[in-house]
Structure formats: structure tokens, C-alpha cells
Amino acid sequence: MKVLSLVVLLIFLVNGVDSVCKCAKLSKSKLKSTKEVSSINEPRDNVTSKACNPTACIYTLTAITKKGDPIIGGVIYNLKNFQKTNATLKFYNGKKAVGKYFFKISGKTNDTDKIVIPSSTGKYITISYSIDSKITKKFPTFIYYANLVKEKIISTTVSPTDNKLIKIEANEDEEGSILNGEELHGNVALILDMGSQNISKLLEIGSEIIKEITLDQSFYIEYYHFYLVLYKNGQVFRVNGLNTKEDLTSIVANMTENVDLKPDYQKINSLGVFLFDAFDKSKESENYQKVAIFVTDNNKFQPNYAKPIPSKPVNFFDMGDIHPVFINFNKDQTAQECYALRNILFSGTISNLVILHDYVTSSYLFESILTNGNRLCNLDQLFNDTSASNQSNFTFPVNDRKSNDCIYHKRYCNNMLFNIYCDKVNTALPIALQINFFDIETNIDTISIYNDAQDLITSISGHQVSNLKMDIFNSAYVKISFETDFKFVFYGGSLAFENCILRS
């Protein structure tokens, strides 16, 4: 009887404990050296130790060192369920979660194993975590690790009347700003030719292009990068490590007010080599599209490059799979004419041929080129060349090839919607179509095949589609439509036809 009473009492005691969802505590609220690490997990129930919903949490971390001005860097691992719960993590400089955050993870952020958090600008960082109070299951999870990092900055020279000091990170290993996926996905370098005749107009256009891009901190910083590069007669100055549109526009505004500003330029072999190395810093985004935008009105270009490295191709835009866009704002000459005067090794081949554009407005630039995958990837031109040569197959992007022992990558592209028509030759026979290979994102990119009545014959999606054969009967032509998403690149495909001619 006593044993039974004891069991009943124990059950009562356990059931009588109310579970509470508590905000986790930082393992260290203060970091004193670069060897120390502070960590924090998602909020957890104090009884079950499982993820729960506290509605809101605030964490503050302090850096304490004797030398220099420390800044706090960090990484988040195992981020889950933010999309399903509309949860947010916001990172602020300072002791309070007020003002503008410098980084945000939101309900738009996909599940991921790792997110690199940009560094703070001072010795305090405050993190705000919030979740919809109605959420009762599938709670968000994450673990945040913070550590001290050395701050490597240089300051631009400003006029005595301007007391605002704009800081530019000089560490070449740090990455730049990220791009909103609704505008562009990938790596973009905006190169301003400081040898232009009209510097004020150059900076005005640079500012307009920057404003047209949405720099959204909710996207992963290791996947999307924006580089601002100043170029002058074979030398470059890379402005990197800037995390907001405000930073970028401030830099350009500062240059506008201080036209005698002399950045610390470095001599380069070619723009292609320079950007190939810069883009290569981000290994995680190898399969994201890379675009270089060169803005100039300079018709007196001075080619003072060093000699090309032996056994390596001069044209690194080709090797690095960078899509070059040449923008001219010289009213007296067209982009075609201005480009012909230059010896800047700013060119591509085959599907990433250089795009020559006379500047009108930033919105027109984005609509006609930067968010137009067909134009940016020269898909139309490549197809027209194929059909003009009466070939019976179409491959895009072009296959890898080797030249002088150097590997040329495929021309990666994305954000395309393209239709191919092939008209029947012998009316007594069907049109034969063979998909030699197609590598696309499953349930995102699609290949759709139609007859002349616009009836859908089949729709295909998936990685490594190969050796798929079909006959199209009772149709004057076959239409192949393929559409790719704006996120990951289209890795390539090859089609072969019999008894039809490709329509240009």
C-alpha cells in the first residue's frame, strides 16, 4: 500500500510540473579573444528540452579585448522551419534591438545547413528572435556560433567639410552584398570606368543601377554577391564587404562629392582575370550565374596591361563563365563603336558573347538584359546560328572543350523561357525527336513538347534526363518549350531531330 501511494505521489509530482518555453542563454555573453566561441540554440521547453514557442527572445553579446576594435562574426547551422512558422532572426549593431538591423533571417529563408552572418561594426551585437504566437508545432530550430574576428578596414579620403567617414573593408576574402532572388540570382560585378570623360554621369548611372537592385539580407550571403569595382587604365579598386544598398550609394555619393578621390588601385592583367579570381572566392555559388557590368563613355582607352600569362588563355571571361555586359553612355558614339576602340579584354565567346548596350535607364537595362535570360545567355543568337547552318541537333550551353591545356566550362545560364520549332519535311513520316540529355531542376524547370494543335504531348522535369526518344505523328511541326527558374543555373541539354528542319 505504501508502495502504491509512493507511485501515485510521484506521478502527481511529475504531472504537476508546468512546462515553460524558455529563451536559451548564450553560452558566453562576453567574448574576450578570437579563440573563444559563444553559442545559442533555439528556445526549448524546460521539461522536454524540445523546441518550443516563446514568441520573442532577445540576446546581447559583447566583445572585450585590449587591442584594436573587435567585431563579432558568426555562423548559423541547422536552420529549419522558418518558412513554415514565419519566424525571424534579426541582428543589430549595439546593445538594443532598435533601428535598422544589418542582417535578417525571415519566413522567406529556406531550410539550410549553414548561413554565414555578416560581421558587426562594433563590440556589441543584439539578436532578436520572434515567432507567431499561434504556432504550436514544427517549431524553428537553429544553432548560432559567434566569435571575434579581426577588422581590416581602410577609410576613404574625404574633404575637410565632410565629417562622415565611409569605411570600406579591405579583406579580399570577405564577400559583398547579396541580391534579391526576385531581381537577380548570382554574382554581379558593377565596374565603373573612372577613366570616363564624364565622371559625374558615370557615378549617376552607377547609383541608378545600384538602386534598381534589391539588396535583401534575408538571402544567404554566401550565395549572392554584389561587387562594386572602380577601374582606371588597367588598374582596379574593389569596394567589397558592403552589406546594404545604403552603404553602396553612400560610397558613390562620396565619390561624386570628391572627384579627386584617389583609391589604392592595383594593377591587373585583365578584367577577366581579376573577376575570375574574385568570383572564385565564393565556392558555394559555383553554379550561380556570374555577370560583369562595365560602364563607360571612354573613347580614348589606354591598354596598358601586362603580358598574358604563358599557357593560359587571355580571355578569362570565357574560362570563368562570366557574362559580360558593356554599357556605353557616350552620346556621340554607339556601344558598338565605343567597344571597337577598346583593348580591354572584355569579351566572351559562343553563348556568353559580350552584350553591347547603349544606356537609357536602369529599369530598361534590367528588363531588356539583366533579367532576360534569353538575351543575357545569347540563347537566341546561338539557336539562330544553329538553324542557319541546317544542323539537325541543338545543344545549349555548348559542351566543355579544351584549348592549350585549359578547360573551358559550360556557359551556365538561368531564368530562360525558350521555344524551339522544327517543321516536318516528309509528310508521310513522323517527326522523330531524341533528348540526348537534359539536366534541370526537378519540379522547377520543365521541358514541354507540343504538336501543331498546341496539344501537350509530354512534359519532362528532372536531373539527368537522357536518351529519351519519341515520334510525333500527324503534326506539321513539333514545338519544344523549356523554362528554367531564376535560382540555380540550367546545366545544359541536347536535342536531336529527324524529318524536320529547325525554324529560325
Structure description:
This is VWFA domain-containing protein. It is a single chain. Helix 7 links the parallel strand 19 (322-328) and strand 20. The strands form eight sheets. The protein has a seven-stranded mixed beta sheet. The relative contact order is 0.09. Helix 3 (199-212) runs antiparallel to helix 4 (245-257). Helices cover 17% and strands 33% of the residues. The protein folds into three domains: 18-149, Jelly Rolls (Sandwich), CATH 2.60.120; 167-371, Rossmann fold (3-Layer(aba) Sandwich); 382-502, Jelly Rolls (Sandwich). With 504 residues, it is of the alpha+beta class.
Task: Please tell me what the overall shape is.
Answer: flat
Return the structural class: alpha+beta
| CATH topology description of the largest domain | Rossmann fold
* Global Rg: 28 Å
CATH class of the largest domain: Alpha Beta
Any idea what the CATH architecture of the largest domain is?
3-Layer(aba) Sandwich
Give the amount of beta strand, in percent: 25-35%
Q: What average pLDDT do the residues reach? A: 72
Quaternary state of the chains: single chain
N/C terminus separation: 94 Å
Strand order of the largest sheet: 17-16-15-14-18-19-20
Q: Bin the helical content.
A: 10-25%
Low-confidence stretches: 1-17, 151-184, 216-223, 302-313, 400-409
Organism: Rhabditophanes sp. KR3021
Protein name: VWFA domain-containing protein
